[in-house]
Amino acid sequence: MGNIFNISTKPIIIAGPCSVESREQLQKIVGMLHEDSRVGLIRCGVWKPRTRPGGFEGLGEPALKWIAELKKEYANLRVCCEVARPEHVELCLQYDIDAVWFGSRTSVNPFLVGELTEALRGSGLAVMVKNPVTPDTALWIGGIERLQQAGISDIAAIHRGFSTYNNFGYRNNPLWEIPIELKRRMPDVPLLCDPSHISGQRELVASLSQMALDLRFDGLMLECHPNPDEALTDSQQQITPMELKLLLDNLKVRTYDEAGPSDLQRLREQLDVIDSEIMKLLSQRMNISKDIGLIKRAHNMPTFQPQRWQQVLDQQIRNARSLNLNEQFIKDIMEKIHSESLRQQE
Ligand code: PEP
Ligand code: MN
User: Fold this and answer.
1) Looking at residue 167, what is its pLDDT?
2) Which residues line ligand 1 (CB under 6 A)?
3) How far apart are CA 93 and CA 99, in angstroms?
4) Closest Cα to residue 117, out of 96, 89, 158?
5) Which residues, 6+ apart, have CB-to-CB distance to 307 below 8 Å?
6) Looking at ligand 1, which atom is closest to the CA of residue 105?
7) Are strands 191-193 and 155-159 parallel, antiparallel or unpaired?
8) What is the pLDDT of residue 1?
9) Residue 184 CB neighbour total at 10 angstroms
10) What pLDDT, on the 0 to 100 scale, is given for residue 265?
11) Residue whose CA lies nearest to ligand 1 atom number 1
């Protein structure tokens, strides 16, 4: 207890079934995963948050008893579970669980996070905070801050993507800029990726895992089941221990100098010059907009003139075409510039 994420060994690998389903299933998966020294922590759900009633909701305390028995059998076995109520935390402590996580439906609720934090205060348990279901960076950071303020320091964040109605191939929308922003603001909190829940499909888990490591994530949480097709929850996204072994064998931890080779540096310097020019031009453009605003006001004209805006847009889209620029990209930029310009004129 107490030193799960405060380590320098990277990547941190957590693997295990979405849910504990029976004593036999648990024994089987733990036996297989414990053999692989790369797996530092075994995940298993014993309380399952289900979207609709009637599904398998986890086995609760009996599953914790089996975990405690296995922890006596295997030296250095470390296990983590999802907690969603203060009573879950008490039970995890009673059965010698090493780490817990807040699921995405829990971290979206500050009341619940507050209650769980109180239950965890002084417990020595390591805690992971999954991103909330909605893409709200501040809410995710807030959950971590609540734990830190309660004196809990063994913390990690887990990126599981964001629930969406339009899932374009993935179960959850990854919106990578959000975990990257969290890492920028909390560089000392290890950031893990959960490619199983992001993808929702076992075929995509390995490539997403590599992508996460390439984006400098500190580790992965992977769902792994002895027989995924028979799993009672998240059957399509779980992988077998053999597939997990293969995934980990092929995972490339790229260590490279952030500055990169000199030809890359030279090109980056050119980009920096161009970006500075763009900033100067934008500033000039906004100054002209302010003057236009004054004239419009003096002549009692509205700030937003749809016809003029259509002309500006059409002209720049034609320009974009002849310069081989992506039309949608230029449309998005022009919309942003135009709305800032209107703001300046107000
Ligand atoms: C889980 O880890 O099994 C789970 C329920 O995840 P999430 O909270 O990301 O939906
Ligand atoms: Mn799951």
Assistant:
1) 65
2) 18, 45, 49, 82, 103-105, 130, 160, 197
3) 9
4) 89
5) none
6) 8
7) parallel
8) 53
9) 8
10) 87
11) 18
**What is the CA(39)–ligand 2 centre distance, in A?**
18
CA of 121 to the centre of ligand 1 (A): 23
Extract the residue ranges of the chain whose pLDDT is less than 50: none
| Residue 211 burial (CB count, 10 A) | 16
pLDDT at residue 134 in the model:
96
324: left (phi over 0), alpha (psi -120 to 50) or beta: left
Pocket perturbation via mutation, ligand 1, pick of 14, 18, 80 by most ligand atoms within 8 A of CB: 18
* Count of CB atoms situated within 10 Å of the CB of 90: 13
pLDDT tens digits, residue range 167-211?
A: 678 999 999 999 999 999 999 999 999 999 999 999 999 999 999
Sequence letter at residue 51 = T
CA of 297 to the centre of ligand 1 (A): 55
| Residue carrying structure tokens 């980009």 | 271
Neighbours of ion ligand 2 (CB under 5 A): 18, 234
150 alpha carbon – ligand 2 mean position (Å): 28
